[in-house]
């Protein structure tokens, strides 16, 4: 088997990275292997241009990460729920950030009707968000502005969907400190925007979503 230049490069990059870390701290990996205690769960998009740790200058061990197309929080997604449950109940994280990004392909696809493949079934959940906010979004004439606002609205909806989960509400009921935040990342600037949707109890939810334990 002939090793491609790209494949060889990423193996070499790993060795270089290890050497750089050990040059700064000879016990870096030894200490890292002892366990993790991150204060933050990051739920972001799978887009390769949105690296969670790098965006906020976090080191390995400081961010627990879940990523999917368009940073969705779907109540039947066992992958997301498993990550959330472990983060909240085992790691006792204090902050959850849902981070979307302008130019998101999943959000863009949800604005149209083209079939892409099996991903259509995932995109449908994003379309549901559009449907709930259609009057406002359709009132925005400029397509790019509408796209950006849809990205922001989608993040806000996912923040509220996180707050609706039994996992988060149970933590709040027991007095655990968990705050959920919504951000959007600018691919063309590198900056994040806090959307000012910050939830630390279920009091901001409609009564029908407030669980009693």
From TrEMBL:
InterPro entries: Carbonic_anhydrase, Carbonic_anhydrase_CS, Carbonic_anhydrase_sf
Alphabetic keyword roster: Lyase, Metal-binding, Zinc
Keyword Zinc included in the entry's annotation: yes
SUPFAM superfamilies: beta-carbonic anhydrase, cab (SSF53056)
Residue intervals passing through the bilayer: none
Cofactor: Zn(2+)
GO BP annotations, alphabetical order: carbon utilization
GO molecular function, one term: zinc ion binding
Domain of life: Bacteria
Organism: Flavobacterium saliperosum
Enzyme class per UniProt: lyase
EC number(s) from the headed UniProt entry: 4.2.1.1
Family, as annotated: Belongs to the beta-class carbonic anhydrase family.
Residues binding Zn(2+), per UniProt: 45, 47, 101, 104
Name of the protein described by the UniProt record: Carbonic anhydrase 2
Reaction catalysis annotation: hydrogencarbonate + H(+) = CO2 + H2O
Co-factor remark: Binds 1 zinc ion per subunit.
